[in-house]
Design a protein that fits this description.
The structure is a homodimer of 112-residue chains.
Chain A: E1 2-8, H1 15-32, H2 35-43, E2 48-53, H3 56-68, E3 73-77, E4 89-97, H4 99-106
Parallel strand pairs in A: 1-2
Antiparallel strand pairs in A: 1-4, 3-4
C-alpha cells in the first residue's frame, strides 16, 4: 500500500512550504480512508511518495480520476498567509490504497 | 493551535524527500494526540510550520523536551531505501497543541 502526494512544482514553493502543504494533503486523504485501510497502511510503515504536477488543471484532473476510482484523496488549498494567493490549489494526496490502485491515477508522474 | 515539524537540514534531503519525512512525522504526532485535541486543531485549519534543526542530537533534545512537557510528538527514522542510511532520525513533529506550548519547545528555531 502507499499514498502518493502530488505537489505543484510550477508554484515555486520553498522546501519548508512545500513540506507543509504535502503534510496537509497527506493527513486529509488519510482521514478520507476507512479505518481498516488506515490501519493496514500504518502497519506497513505508511509508505509515501511525493510526485510532481505543473499546473492547477493537472491537479484537478488527477483528483477527478481518484474520485472516479473511489480512492481516498484530498486537494489542499492554501490559506494564503505566506507564499501563495488565497485558495491556490497546491497539492493532492491519493491513498492510502493498494499500490496498483494509486498507480492507476499517478503512475505517469515523475518524482517531485 | 499548531503543529511544528522540525527537520534536519544537515542531511541535505531533496525537496520531495523532505516533504515525505515531514508528512510522516506530522501524521505520527497527530496520532499521538487525543481525539479532542485532534478535532480542535483540524477545526482551526490544522496549522503546520516546518522548522530547521542541524543535527540528530538537536532533534533528540527537542523530543525529550516535548516528552517532558507531555506534548504529542514523534521522531521519524528513515527506512533507508533511498537517500538516507537506515535508521537516520530525520524529523520530529511536536503538537498539535496550543501555540504557546509548542513554542516552549521549538520557539527558538528558524523556519526550514
Amino acid at each position: 500500500m502507499k499514498q502518493a502526494i502530488v505537489a505543484r512544482k510550477d508554484l515555486g514553493m520553498g522546501a519548508g512550504k512545500l513540506a507543509a502543504q504535502v503534510a496537509h494533503a497527506s493527513l486529509m486523504a488519510y482521514e478520507d480512508a476507512d479505518a481498516k485501510t488506515r490501519s493496514a497502511w500504518k502497519g506497513e510503515g505508511q509508505k509515501k511518495v511525493v510526485l510532481r504536477a505543473d499546473s492547477e488543471s493537472e491537479l484537478f484532473e488527477l483528483a477527478e480520476k481518484a474520485k472516479s476510482e473511489r480512492l481516498p484523496h484530498a486537494v489542499v488549498r492554501d490559506a494564503g498567509h505566506t507564499q501563495l494567493d488565497p485558495g491556490t490549489a497546491s497539492a493532492l494526496a491519493v491513498g492510502p490504497a493498494k499500490d496498483r490502485a494509486v498507480d492507476a491515477v499517478t503512475g505517469e508522474l515523475s518524482l517531485y
